[in-house]
Amino acid sequence: MSRAVLSLGSNVGDRLEYLRLAARGFSDVLVAASAVYETAPWGVTDQPDFLNAVLVVSSPEFDEWDWLRRGQRLEQEAERTREQRWGPRTLDVDVVTVDDVRSGDPELLLPHPGTPERATVLVPWAEVEPEAVLPGRGRVSELCGRLPDEEVAGVRRCRDLSLL
Ligand SMILES: Nc1ncnc2c1ncn2[C@@H]1O[C@H](COP(=O)(O)OP(=O)(O)OP(=O)(O)O)[C@@H](O)[C@H]1O
Ligand SMILES: Nc1nc2c(c(=O)[nH]1)N=C(CO)CN2
To answer: pLDDT tens-digit profile of 87-121?
Structure first.
């Protein structure tokens, strides 16, 4: 049995359709889906804005590697290519947490190390799980509160779009 938090991102092509492809790919194990957010790019800033969202998923059969593999299969379905670190992509599925699992394996770092600094993950996650805790780092809502205002403001909820 495991429960995972997944971050979805897209900034190439039909961004909403790619996020929906991912949501459909997890529909059998879906617990909750956030709203869709339009977000300013971080890392490589000279690229189009992203759509981001978070899924909470749970399955009696899955371990952390199963979540990673299913996400990677969906990235392939979205014809994702790997050209540049932090560069444009049709679909990114990151495993943010799996229960309290800690992993230093470079193929699956858990919790995902970028999480405390990424408003694009923390804001949608706090929306679906207001009491959530990032293992070892504290409450997600408090981590959000520590980010610079302009980063949080760069994560804009799209009221006219929905994942499901
Ligand atoms: N928690 C994780 N979730 C998803 N992939 C991970 C995780 N930890 C390590 N990886 C590994 O990261 C590798 C590269 O992933 P990817 O190209 O999506 O990185 P990125 O999205 O550009 O950067 P970042 O991981 O900082 O968001 C994959 O081969 C995958 O095995
Ligand atoms: N706003 C935003 N910026 C990014 C994102 C993302 O999901 N959202 N993902 C990246 C590579 O993982 C690089 N930059």
So the answer is: 999 999 999 999 999 999 999 999 999 999 999 99
Write the residue with the smallest CA distance to atom 3 of ligand 2.
41
Sign of the C-alpha dihedral computed for residues 147, 20, 50 and 88 taken in this order: positive
Does this model's pTM top 0.90? yes
Q: Which CATH number is 2-157 given?
A: 3.30.70.560
Is 71's C-beta closer than 6 angstroms to any atom of ligand 2?
no
* Beta carbon of 86 within 6 Å of any ligand 2 atom: yes
Report the alpha-carbon distance of residue 136 to residue 142 in Å, rounded.
Answer: 13
Q: Please state the atom number of ligand 1 nearest to the C-alpha of residue 96.
A: 1
CB-based contact 108:29 (threshold 8 Å)? no
Distance between Cα 94 and ligand 1 center (Å): 6
ipTM: 0.96
Residue 92 CA: nearest ligand 2 atom is: 12
Give yes or no for residue 1 having a pLDDT over 90: no
